[in-house]
From TrEMBL:
Protein family: Belongs to the ABC transporter superfamily.
Record-linked SMART domains: AAA
Lineage: Bacteria, Pseudomonadati, Pseudomonadota, Alphaproteobacteria, Rhodobacterales
Domain ABC transporter, chain residue ranges per copy: 4-234
Designated name of the protein: ABC transporter ATP-binding protein
PROSITE patterns: ABC_TRANSPORTER_1, ABC_TRANSPORTER_2
CDD domains assigned: ABC_MalK_N (cd03301)
tRNA processing in keyword set: no
Length: 351
């Protein structure tokens, strides 16, 4: 168990900046998720912690040691990759045991430790099989067992679920969450999937083009996104973001009007989430726009309307039915709106 301190770390290749001035303390036992689109620098950040990539600048501390000059094997971190990295000629038992052998752990303890790790990921019945005889989900569980068998100070996981099909992803995600609760080991987890980030993290770091955009709990990031990038990256569907102008407390965009805003006059980007808008039976005084598409989600109905050339998502109750092209009347209460600077996209105070 250990705290990780990343003190202004950067990674540059020539003039290209992969990670820019990343500065964060990850608490002992925290589950931290690095989230962002492809190429934003998540993996590079994690590889610097692991020692697979040298930081161009800054210091990395794990526990009470500065590890910049330590080899990966001396940092006491265990990694799980999306590609599993299992040894094909070894059976599950020997794959899980491998780190104990390499680290010369007391041989008398191996059997118990391997079986315990296998049990934690529900692989007890598969110990004799070779990786080729396992499903993708089972292989990923072998990789997890191999990481937990030697009780490292830190777990680093790079998109461990991305090779699994949707259903398996959900169940393995739950297993990782449960495992991490049980093990209480500081974990850094890389993903581009915002649902994984929201469901697993104690805190999420949202990155874009090498630069940290926001650090916060899933709720903080969802409820108070720091800018339009974070607002549109977190949540499904993405937050509705509309260009327009505020005049005397009323926002006017293309075909969307919201009144009662407590904000200065001028151009802004107005944001609201699909679940915060309400569909109205009585169209008077509200926004009306033609239905572009309707999706039945089971527990709700998602409407997408075309408001002034822009698509806007509204989550409605599950019984709602409508035809494409029908006018949909909806209401956007001022209290649930987010306002962003129209040039920088940075968050303005909530109205
Ligand atoms: N060895 C390298 N030399 C030059 N540029 C690199 C090198 N490794 C990575 N990069 C660049 O650094 C940036 C960050 O890469 P990184 O792998 O950290 O992104 P990522 O957020 O993990 O993306 P993905 O989700 O696609 O893995 C990318 O633009 C990548 O092309």
């Amino acid at each position: 168990m250990a705290e990780i301190q990343l003190k202004n770390i950067s990674k540059r290749w020539g003039s290209f900046v992969g990670v820019d001035n990343f500065d964060l303390t990850i608490a002992d036992r925290e589950f931290l998720v690095l989230l962002g689109p492809s190429g934003c620098g998540k993996t590079t950040t994690m590889r610097m912690i692991a020692g697979l990539e040298e930081a161009t600048e800054g210091e990395i501390h794990i526990g009470d040691r500065m590890v910049n000059d330590l080899d990966p094997k001396d940092r006491d971190v265990a990694m799980v990759f999306q590609s599993y990295g299992l040894y094909p000629h070894l059976n599950v038992y020997e794959n899980i045991r491998f780190p104990l052998k390499v680290r010369k752990a007391d041989p008398a303890t191996h059997d118990e430790r391997v079986r315990k790790a296998a049990e934690m990921v529900e692989l007890t019945d598969f110990l004799h099989r070779k990786p080729a005889e396992l499903s993708g989900g089972q292989r990923q569980r072998v990789a997890l067992a191999r990481a937990i068998v030697r009780k490292p100070s830190v777990f680093l996981m790079d998109e461990p679920l991305s090779n699994l099909d949707a259903k398996l992803r959900v169940s393995t995600r739950a297993q990782i969450k449960n495992l991490s609760h049980e093990l209480q080991v500081t974990t850094v987890y890389v993903t581009h999937d915002q649902i994984e980030a929201m469901t697993l993290a104690d805190r999420v770091v949202v990155m874009k083009a090498g630069v940290v955009q926001q650090v916060g709990t899933p709720t903080e990031i969802y409820d108070n996104p720091a800018n339009t990038f974070v607002a549109s990256f977190i949540g499904s569907p993405a937050m509705n973001l509309l260009d327009g102008e505020i005049l005397n407390g009323t926002f006017t965009g293309k075909n969307v009007t919201v009144s009662g805003l407590n904000a200065p006059n001028g151009p802004v980007i107005l944001g609201f989430r699909a679940e915060d808008a309400t569909v109205s039976e009585t169209p008077a005084g509200e926004i009306a726009a033609p239905l572009y598409t309707i999706e039945l989600l089971g527990d709700a109905t998602m409407l997408t309307v075309r408001a002034g050339g822009q698509l806007v998502s509204i989550k409605a109750h599950k019984e709602l039915r409508a035809q494409i092209g029908d006018p949909v009347a909806f209401n956007v209460p001022a209290a649930i709106c987010h306002l962003f600077d129209h040039e920088t996209g940075g968050r303005l105070n909530r109205p």
